[in-house]
Amino acid sequence: MRTRADGTVAPELAEKVEATSPTVWTATLRPGVTFWKGGTVDAAAVVASMERARAENTLAAGLLKDVTVAATGDRTVTFTTKEPSHSLPSALSHYQLVIHNVASAPKEADLTGPYRITGFESDRRMVLERNDRWWGGTPGLARVEVQKVGDPQARAQIALSGQAEIVQDLPTDRAKELSAAPGMALVAKPAANTVTVYLNPSSAAAPALADQRVRQALSWGVDRQEVVDLATNGLSVPASSWLASNPAFPDAAKQGYVRFDKATAERLLDEAGWRVGADGKRAKAGTKLTLRLLTFGAEAATGEVLQAQWARLGIDVQVRNVESSLINQSIDKGDWDAVTQAWTTLGDTAKLMAAQIGPAGAANHGKYTDPRIAGLLAQAAGAPSEDQRTAAVYDLNKLMVELAPSIPVHPRVLATGVSKKVTGFVAHPLQYENIVQPTMTLG
């Protein structure tokens, strides 16, 4: 399956994927498909690929949890789930389940796509050449070279000098310069993820976060448009709720913190007992209202704007920009108050929301719980009608706003420089999807 730019999922390697019962999905493979090295892509090969992914990759194992995969014909693969799983096609579109030839050497890439890997240097470069065996026809480019450049300013210089036809992850502070560059277009699309400030209600250093009113006040006190303007140079959009960055759920942008409401934030903080003193700082029983915020990468700018905005409420916020591994270590140790992360919102929505607010959710860092969560998650995953499942997803999103386990701010920016010689480039809300399309050409 393939996730398209509008958030919908469509058959790709499969000719069709259809539900034959609430717990059974049948995929019919395209006829005549081969791997790069010529092996036949039949049902047995697909099952072998998925089972190896399940065994070797924890994310793939999560996508296939409680899913039995079996070859039921030369070209048919049957997926049987423990419970009704209406969103299985979204899971099958995830890049961690790309189909590869297990029969090839373990460290040798043998896939099915329009371009095959002919050169690879870890953390440096990859060379792709046209796959003449591709089932979809003749790809438009003969050769693609991918280079890894870690410094965003160096990437900006590469784009400005025309040394590459496509340059990803350009720094937003160079947006005006990049937009004005001749021969290149700056394509900026908000990603299908939401930069979110996760809050720890068990923090010994910031006990105020245990109070739902304080967490809600922090979110009402965020001027998201100002954050977008200052931290992303206007290249992103405000996210009023966690799900707002998912193009398949447009009404999520109408839920949650749809406006900056300083008065509500101040009222909630007052009700929680955190009063403003003569020094302009909030305190309760002689203790100042403070918290530590860890940010990562480009989110440093977002953290700095949030720091200034919350200071206007009388809250002292200490911001540190660190490696993502340090954020994870701090969460594991329980020694954290607030951290920024951006989890994907597009895919198997029920599972993605379970990760955010479910009792064992990988992103439920604060271990939040509510008696309504389990039923809504079950309905989002297994209700018989799409309307019922959609309603449950929106209800879960509203519940996250109410509980305020985290503060949605804005989607990450996918800023890409594209040479005007390139035709067929389509911006995609998933960072690793559709960078190079088989229909792309270079004039």
From TrEMBL:
Gene3D superfamilies (alphabetical): Dipeptide-binding Protein, Domain 3, Periplasmic binding protein-like II
Protein origin, superkingdom: Bacteria
Domain Solute-binding protein family intervals: 9-346
InterPro entries per the UniProt record, alphabetical: Peptide/Ni-bd, SBP_5, SBP_5_dom
A Pfam family that the UniProt record links to this protein: SBP_bac_5
Stated name of the protein: Peptide ABC transporter substrate-binding protein
Phylogenetic lineage: Bacteria, Bacillati, Actinomycetota, Actinomycetes, Micromonosporales
